[in-house]
Design goal:
Elements: E1 10-15, H1 35-45, E2 49-54, E3 75-78, E4 81-84, E5 110-114, H2 137-143, E6 148-154, H3 156-169, E7 173-182, H4 189-199, E8 203-204
Parallel strand pairs: 1-2, 1-6, 2-5, 6-7, 7-8
Antiparallel strand pairs: 3-4
Bound molecules: pyrazine-2-carboxylic acid (VGL) and zinc ion (ZN).
Pyrazine-2-carboxylic acid binds at residues 16, 21, 54, 86, 123, 154-155, 158-159.
């Protein structure tokens, strides 16, 4: 259990706890579903909860299946920079894109969907992978007066990493609760994530 007493300017950002990232899903993160009970407990302490959902159209450009002859988990260069190719996952309105059925956060006031444009991926809850196109979450958090973002969910080395780093760069206090995250951990991605988060002033909680 994580001991904490969140205040009125703190928000819990629950990232991509979706079936496709859990055991049996199309892009399963090892132990992904293990975060659910802890996130539910944390959720009871926070008045303010925001959830994100990876939400891709069929034929999304981050899917290896959209690139003839290329395999999942390889990297290509897109107009906006490097992009890892993934198995088809989190297709809009599919079961794999649903939030995990034991996630119990009825008071979450906002669900942010991301990655819904075919030609660009979005790891971060704040910006698409060009690091420029906003999702709208920054405006929501600022307008609501939140100052500190606690990031949890999947995957630590991709969507949690980029969300936490963007939150810090945008001027929020940004905390990652690693116990409530799980990583894909491919080709050094977890070490790179930890370094990037530390260098960006993301706090470990
Ligand atoms: C994610 C890879 C592709 C994530 C989403 O939620 O970390 N990773 N799409
Ligand atoms: Zn995705």
């Amino acid at each position: 259990m994580i001991e904490m007493t969140p205040g009125a300017s703190d928000v819990l950002l629950v990232i991509d706890v979706q079936n496709d990232f859990c055991t049996g899903g199309n892009l399963a993160v090892p132990g992904g579903e293990e975060v659910v009970p802890l996130i539910n407990q944390l959720g009871q302490k926070f008045d303010n909860v925001v959830i994100t959902q990876d939400w891709h159209p069929q034929g999304h450009s981050s899917f290896a299946s959209s690139h003839e002859g290329l395999e999942p988990f390889t990297e290509i260069t897109m107009s906006y920079g490097a992009q890892t190719l993934w198995p088809d996952h989190c297709i809009q309105a599919s079961n794999g894109a649903e939030l995990h059925e034991r996630l119990d956060l009825p008071h979450a006031a906002m669900i942010v969907r991301k990655g819904y444009r075919k030609e660009i991926d979005s790891y971060s809850a704040f910006f698409e992978n060009d690091h420029k196109t906003p999702t709208g979450l920054t405006g929501y958090l600022r307008e609501r007066g939140f100052e500190r973002v606690y990031c949890v969910g999947l995957a630590l080395d991709f969507c949690v990493r980029f969300s936490a780093v963007d939150a810090a760069n945008l001027g929020f206090k940004s905390v990652v609760l690693e116990e409530a995250c799980r990583a894909i951990d491919m080709m050094g991605s977890l070490d790179a994530a930890r370094k990037d988060m530390a260098d960006s002033g993301v706090m470990a909680g």
